[in-house]
Amino acid sequence: MTESFELHHSKSRKRKKLLTFLGISGFLSVAIFIIEWVGSRESGSLALFADAGHIATDIFAHMISFLAIILSAKKANSKFPFGYHRIEVLAALANSLLLVGIAIFILYESYIRILSSEPIHTDSMLSYSLIGLVINLCSVALLFKVSKESLNLKSAYLHVLSDLLGTVAVIIGAFIIQWTEILIIDSILSIFIGLFILRSSYSILKESIEILLEAYPEEFDKEHFLNHVQSLKGLKSISMFKVRKLTSGVFTIELQAVTEDEANRDFLTLEIHKVAKSHFGIPYISVELVSVGLLSNLSKIELLEKEDPNLHVHHGHGHHSHKH
Questions:
Q1: Residue 317: its pLDDT value, please?
Q2: Half-sphere exposure of 197 (CA within 13 A, CB side)
Q3: What's the average model confidence in pLDDT over 27-53?
Q4: DSSP line for 17-63
Q5: Which of 70, 57, 91 is nearest to 160 (CA)?
Q6: Averaged over 127-149, what is the pLDDT?
Q7: DSSP letter string, 240-298
Q8: pLDDT, tens digit, 9 for 90 and up, residues 72-130
Q9: Considering the entire predicted model, what is its pTM?
């Protein structure tokens, strides 16, 4: 009981820390957006406008991530037996799609600007981007450590990091335009920012989709886990093994194993659960232990092909109770 309370308290403390860091970072993003948007209006810089637009999506990303942390902490129930972990994945997916959308918009605006060059006030462009850089550095420093703790926060961190690199590019561009007076550099920079946003969003988008499609998680050490299980006395072989990733660091396992005839199946079930939960930190595991004969019979069962998925939901099978 004490261990359970301490674990709950530890998770609650961690969640509060993540929410605090994310909240401060979100507030800083709002400040950067206002500064760079005003700066783009005054300077006429498309690169600064592109960076401000990127930061606008960053604000939304922080809001989604903040909400995801709160909702994902809700306990599992009969309707959601695995809890709300996937909310973090959906948040990461929404963030990455948002990044793709803003990147395409920036690339389009860059193309339009190349066709019709407009005057740029580099002094204003430089001043506002330097202020944005300082605030961005603070935000990156805040999220760097906590970004390793969840896919959702990794997504928010990548938003902030790409903001920082975009702001650095704008500053470099402002200096070059001042020295050379070549205005097209502003549009070229915007294209690079757009391409960078696309690249940084790809990994999050890919991982989110793979989790939702329940692809095998490459980071899970299957061989290490199975070595632990197969060393148990009375276990002959592993006939089925499935791993699903719910969100960063949270997995669920389905395992079917063939046992020797005289094996103590209750003991084996308990030990497999211990390996999964105590050694690997896997909260959800389903274990099925079968004999060689049963496995053979199971493989002969044919799957019913249904044209209508609701065809047999309320279908009576003709089973009648017998009165004695």
A1: 54
A2: 34
A3: 86
A4: HHHHHHHHHHHHHHHHHHHHHHHHHHH--HHHHHHHHHHHHHHHHHH
A5: 57
A6: 85
A7: EEEEEEEETTEEEEEEEEEE-TT--HHHHHHHHHHIIIIIT---EEEEEEE-HHHHHHH
A8: 677 777 888 777 778 878 877 887 888 788 888 888 888 887 777 667 788 888 888 89
A9: 0.68
Cβ–Cβ < 8 Å for 33, 56: yes
The residue type of 251 is: F
Q: What is the pLDDT of residue 154?
A: 77
- CA geometry: angle at 310 spanning 305 and 312, to 5°? 65
Per the structure block, which two tokens stand in for 265? 């199946």
Closest CA to 36 of 58, 21, 63: 58
Which stretches of 80-183 are DSSP H helices? 86-115, 122-146, 151-180
CA distance 277 to 275: 6
Place of tokens 């981007």: 129
Say how many CA atoms lie within 13 Å of 43 toward its Cβ.
Answer: 29
CB–CB of 114/184 below 8 Å? yes
Hey, how many other C-beta atoms are within 10 angstroms of the C-beta on 321?
A: 5
Candidates 150, 120, 138; CA nearest to 47 is 120
Question: What is the C-alpha separation between 255 and 243, in angstroms, rounded?
Answer: 9
Joined tokens for residue 137: 């550095």
Task: Tell me how many degrees the CA angle 307-311-316 measures, rounded to the nearest 5.
Answer: 140
- What pLDDT digit, counting tens, does each position of 179-200 carry? 888 888 888 888 887 887 788 7
Distance set, CA 196 to CA 164, 187, 309 (Å): 12, 14, 44
Q: What is the pLDDT of residues 223-246, one digit of tens each?
A: 889 998 988 988 888 999 999 998
Structure tokens of 216?
Answer: 């095998």
249-281 CB burial, b ≥16 within 10 A, e <16: ebbbbebbbbbeeebeeeebbebbeebbeeeee
Residue found under tokens 């903040």: 66
